[in-house]
Predict the 3D structure of the following.
Amino acid sequence: MAHILLRDRDIPDIWQFDTYVANGGYDGLKKAVQDHVPAEVIQIVLESNLRGRGGAGFPAGRKWSFIPQDAERKYVVVNADESEPGTFKDRQLLEKNPHQVIEGAMIAAYAIQATAVYIYCRGEFWDLAHALEERIDEARRANLVGDNVLGSGWSCDIHVHLGAGAYICGEESALLNSLQGLLGQPRVRPPFPAQKGGGLYYEPTVVNNVETLANVPWILVNGAEAYKEIGTPQSPGPKIFCVSGHVEKPGNYELPLGATFRELIFDHAGGIPNGKQLKGILPSGASGPVLPATDDVLDSPMTYETVAELGSTLGSASFILMDEDTDMVWAAAKMIHFFKHESCGKCTPCREGTYWLERIYDRILRGEGTPRDLELLESVPNQMQGLTLCALGEFAANPVLSTVKHFRDEYERYVGISPASQPTDVPEVAEPVAAV
Ligand SMILES: Cc1cc2nc3c(=O)[nH]c(=O)nc-3n(C[C@H](O)[C@H](O)[C@H](O)COP(=O)(O)O)c2cc1C
Ligand code: SF4
């Protein structure tokens, strides 16, 4: 089947304006602006049940419908921060099929009658951001962006902004602060970005992921019903799965939501190198719980709801694969190091929790861990989950709790518990538990 998102796989020069237009590019925007009033565009996207591809899977049309129509200033912000470990799909879209993202953003902007669009790129994307400016210029010259778009009387320009390389600036409210020139830390909600007081410059704002918006032109051209024929009823449409780690053919794969883990990993990505067994799967980069590679998991469809039922999250669908030789304690320690480094420090459970978790892991990996440390690895994350200002605190708890649950024997070996003879009465150690 022809790709809907990774169209560069079928048409290598699709990044060029003329090639994009010759292959139906900007027909979705033309259809939106010339055939529909804004409310109808929202309705079409609502009916398609397109779910946000940035992590939470929130329906895009519903998000757009929250924007108050009478607000004088409204914005669309494209989240191109792409910082989740193992995620590299937005980069490919922006590099190889940029006009589709620009078109999707303009359709969203028309739907909410936005006054401007901002594309927030992670700092490392500086070369990509400059190329994007040129692509936007091409669209501007064709009257698809800027003043009086397609003669409709509606004007909306696009601006590209570079972040400075902080994971937390992918979180939408921290992103908005960063865009405003403030410290990149999450805001207290409500008000939410769609509400007055909660968005960019405190005006109602839609924040959508790059991939979410790249779906929109196809929906406008082909209709919501055709879109729902791809994927499953609750998780419709195509999805880009990023595959990395211990795998023969790492890369981006566009498949319908609902394809199985096995199809992705073995049929498309070529399986595990050197005849090794697959041991663990991180379906959403470092931020979601790790899943053991059991037959039940491998035969499950990859949808927002089924991955949640399995005990993890589909998130941005960044699949990091770990083979039988992977030390899961070491892997969890790496992720905790990442989250501790990226915690913005605004709220105590996340700032302190990640700090103490890192210390516990360091101790365990040095061979100085005790059974008490294993207890702490269960209690500290439980004091973070549900108690933090943004989801980073939740994310940090996930690798710890999930590896302790599924690979407990590896921890027990580190802390000197023989799995066959677990002590029922764990001795107290001198560690300052109260401080944790
Ligand atoms: C710590 C953290 C990092 C995030 N990083 C990203 C990111 O890099 N890209 C992204 O699109 N969403 C990211 N998100 C999710 C955004 O907050 C937001 O939900 C998303 O951009 C909404 O777009 P969507 O509805 O199209 O998915 C992150 C969330 C958190 C809590
Ligand atoms: S959970 Fe962590 S990253 Fe999020 S606001 Fe609190 S300290 Fe900052």
The chain has 18 helices and nine strands. The chain has three domains: 7-228, 238-323, 328-435.
